[in-house]
Each structure stands twice: as structure tokens, then as C-alpha cells.
């Protein structure tokens, strides 16, 4: 089974593209969704987060996303810390999930494949890019973030040029009508390479 990763910066359209692969019957693993889920349900993970970030990390037994994002947003050390705590649990979930899959390939979605040095685990990597104006517009609507906060997030991410150089495929999310053709092209290429 070929292991494929989809990565890209905030607001590039990774989840939309992931759903296009899912529509083709490809098993997909959304690491952000899994991380959010297990941060609320896994007692060992909750305890590690509380130990590292204090009782305010949870409010009425639910992850206090606003508090945690405010704490880690401008602190690279704390951002790395939360990722180092959560990532092994997500990896365990993925390893359990992949054993249950029976497909020519699977797709794992994560914005931080390269930042967590995870690229070596995958056979193919797809990088999703989009124009900055489109990213800002999407994220402002979806997350209700200010333009300055979005630009700050973009500036903290690994630059597209570096991601593209390390990727096997690039999807430029400029024209929604062309996305499905590009996804089909990549899908067929992966199937044929197996």
C-alpha cells in the first residue's frame, strides 16, 4: 500500500482536496480532526497537556482551544512542545487506522509534515498551494481571524518554495474547476506507480 501525505499552509484547501480523494474511494486520515478528537477524549494526552500548559488548557473537561492557541501562538518553544506532545498520539492513531485499510493507497493530511520531519514515512507527498489573497479570504471566513493574524501564521510556516521542492506533486488551488482534473491526474499516477 502506498502512503501519500497531503500538506500545505493554512487555508490552501487541503481538506477540500482530501475530500476529492475520498470521493474516489481512497481512505483518508485528517490529522487535525484526529488531534482535536483525541485531545478531548484521551485521558493520558489530556494529563500531558495539563502538566505542560496548566489547568486552563481545559475548561469543563473540554480543550480550551482559545487559551492554548494564545499561549503557543507567539512562542515557538511552546508550539514545538504542544506538537511534540500531541504528535505521538496522532501517529499511534494513524498506525492503528492504516492496519485496517485495504486500498492501493491511503492519504494522510497534515499541515506540518515537513516541520515534524514526517516526510520519510510517506512514499509520495502532495503539496497544496494557493494565492495569499485567497488564503486570507478563506481563513477570515472560516476562522474569523484578522488579516494580521493570518499573515503572521503564514510567515511562521515553512515557505511554499521549500515544501514544493520536497514534494512529488503540487496542486495549485487557483481555479476550483481545475482541481478535480488535477486530483484525478495525481490519483491515476499513484495507482499506475503501484
Number of strands: 7
Task: Assign the CATH architecture of the largest domain.
Answer: 3-Layer(aba) Sandwich
Mean pLDDT rating: 92
Main β-sheet description: 5 strands, parallel
Name the overall outline.
globular
**Low-confidence regions:** none
Measured by DSSP, the beta-strand proportion falls in 5-15%
Helix content: 55-70%
CATH topology of the largest domain: Rossmann fold
Q: Looking at this structure, what is the CATH superfamily of the largest domain? A: P-loop containing nucleotide triphosphate hydrolases
Number of helices: 9
Q: How many domains?
A: 2
Radius of gyration: 17 Å
- Elements, N to C (H/E): EHEHHEEHHEEHHHEH
Distance between the termini: 8 Å
State the name of the first-level CATH class of the largest domain: Alpha Beta
**Which class best fits the helix and strand makeup?**
alpha/beta
Strand order of the largest sheet: 2-5-1-6-7
Description:
The strands form two sheets. The chain has a five-stranded parallel beta sheet, sandwiched between helices. The protein has a two-stranded antiparallel sheet with strand order 3-4. The radius of gyration is 17 Å and the shape is globular. Helix 2 packs across helix 3, helix 2 crosses helix 5 and helix 3 packs antiparallel against helix 5 (76-99). It is 57% helix and 15% strand. The chain is built from nine helices and seven strands; from the N terminus they run E-H-E-H-H-E-E-H-H-E-E-H-H-H-E-H. With 194 residues, it is of the alpha/beta class. It folds into two domains: 1-27 and 105-194, Rossmann fold (3-Layer(aba) Sandwich), CATH 3.40.50.300; 33-100, Rossmann fold (3-Layer(aba) Sandwich). Strand 3 (58-59) and strand 4 form a beta hairpin.
